[in-house]
Specification:
This protein has about 90 residues and is of the alpha+beta class. It has two helices and six strands, in the order E-E-E-E-E-H-H-E. The two termini are about 20 Å apart.
Amino acid sequence: MDRNELELWVPAGGVTRDRRGHDSLEGSVRWNHPTRGLLKPEEFIPIAYATGVIEQIDEWVLTTAATDMSSWRKDHPDLVAWITSRPDC
C-alpha cells in the first residue's frame, strides 16, 4: 500500500449507456506488482483478506474512484459509477 502499486483499472471504451440513459462504467482494482506485473483482483484479494490489508485496499479504491469521478464527469456529466465492495460489507 505504501509503494503506490494499486491502480483503478477501467477498460478502454469503458463508459457505456445504462438502461436509464446514464453514462456508466465498471472498473476494478489492479496491483502493479514489482516483479509479477499487473495482477487481477482474484490474484491478490484473497491474500489481502488473509493479511488484513483488505480494509486499506477498500479505502484506497473508494477514495481514488471519488477523486477520478470529478475528472471523468468533465467528459460525461451524467456519469454514474457503481462501486462494488467485498461481499462481507
